[in-house]
Amino acid sequence: MPKHPTPTRLSPTLTCCLRFCLLLAVLPSMSFTLRAQSSAAAPTHLEAAGDFNYVHSNAPPGGCGCFSLFGGSASVAYKFRPHAAVVGEFAMINNNNVENTGHILTITTALAGVRVPYPLHATRYAPYAQVLIGLSHDSGMIAQVNPSGPSSYNAFAASIGGGLDIRLTRRLSLRPAEVDYLVTTFPNRAANHQNNTRVSSGLVIRF
């Protein structure tokens, strides 16, 4: 009967070398996969937003109507808990002809506070509520309470409201609307208190 050749057996040393080489070949791909999964699952804590602002404000002293201001805002938020974030916001709004008087009014606000985001599970929608406090500054002809007084003032300001973010990509969201009650305390020869409604819309970038 024909003899079959005896299969060649690898030495233990060569076997260990081959296993080690195979491990070296597999490790980089495993590491890349784990990094990709970690990156995809890692939460984004920091975000920046740019918004267009529309503000419906009080009439000048003695008036009975209201007027509108337009401008923009920029904000930064850091989420330190799943449902808690700190927020800083700077905004500037303007009207060059208040109530057809030819008077100019520019208001800037610098606010900070807390936001409570509440992303809806398994959806792209993330509503939130927030409370901000800080300072406001007004300037222009309508800001001058009396002819001999200053034409600009600094005052306390605060806002309370909320909005909705719609995720477009992992890094980018659309903010179709944020609605806030904005209070300022500029001198106005009356109550020195202004009630404003602010509506904002813009984009959010996450880092």
What does this structure look like?
The model is unreliable at 23-41 (pLDDT under 50). With 207 residues, this protein is mainly β. The protein is elongated and about 90 Å long. A hairpin with a 4-residue loop joins β6 (152-167) and β7 (172-184). It has one helix at residues 12-41, and strands spanning 46-58, 66-81, 84-98, 103-117, 125-139, 152-167, 172-184, 194-206.
Structural Rg: 30 Å
Counted up, domains total 2
Taken in chain order, the helices and strands follow as: HEEEEEEEE
Poorly predicted regions: 23-41
SS-based structural class? mainly beta
Q: Write the CATH architecture name of the largest domain.
A: Beta Barrel
In percent, how helical is the residue content? 10-25%
Total number of helical segments? 1
Tally of DSSP β-strands? 8
CATH topology of the largest domain: Porin
CATH class of the largest domain: Mainly Beta
